[in-house]
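Action item from last week, closing it out:
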Amino acid sequence: MEITKGFQITEPELFIPWGITEEELRSLFPSGQLREVTNGYITTSCVSFRNLKHELGFHFNPRKNGRLGLLEFFRKDYKNLDKSFRDFQQQFVGEFGLPHATTKGTDGYTIHRWQFDHIQIEHTIIDRFGPEEHMRISNLVYRMDPKVLFKNYFVFELTEDLKEVIPLEELGTDDSGWRQYYKNSAGNWIKFFPFSEYHGGGQAYLILLGNEDPLKWVESNKEFENETRSLLL
């Protein structure tokens, strides 16, 4: 499974890409199979991996007009918490290998974490009104709050913290030198300077294009710097 791209459900047989909208998620599923719990949170019953029956929650960020950034695995019935924990752990180890980090948790349980680029998997038990199992896969890019949304594309202020979360491979620079093109497992990015009249070009920003071709996207959005500037002001 290419977890940096999305998550594969066994039944129904569907691949859920990261960063899709609620509308795009609904278009993937048969009618009536998804349940809207609240704004930005949808659930379903499904089977994953090797016949693992469970509930799956889809969390969107931001909650309104957001994109998929977190998957939450849970059960309707937790009569046997130990068995549930073992079952989930066995299935995730079978798919993703041994955890990359294991630390001490609560009530005798451990915290297991996997890290694949910007994808983080965590399995643990927390004490919140009693023991509660948490099994989640997070896309750290889409879990971050964008500075603004430009036509539903995430725009981030380029900070040192952001650089640590989303390491980027540079693809090139346009003729003006003000746009730089990057890629990583989350997709294609453009670094730009909407306040270029400021000293040093002002604050740099990144816009996440997903699978969009950067050059074609710029051709269709020639004024995106100025339009993003207006959103930021």
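Closing note: The helical segments are 22-28, 81-96, 140-143, 160-165, 214-220, 224-232.
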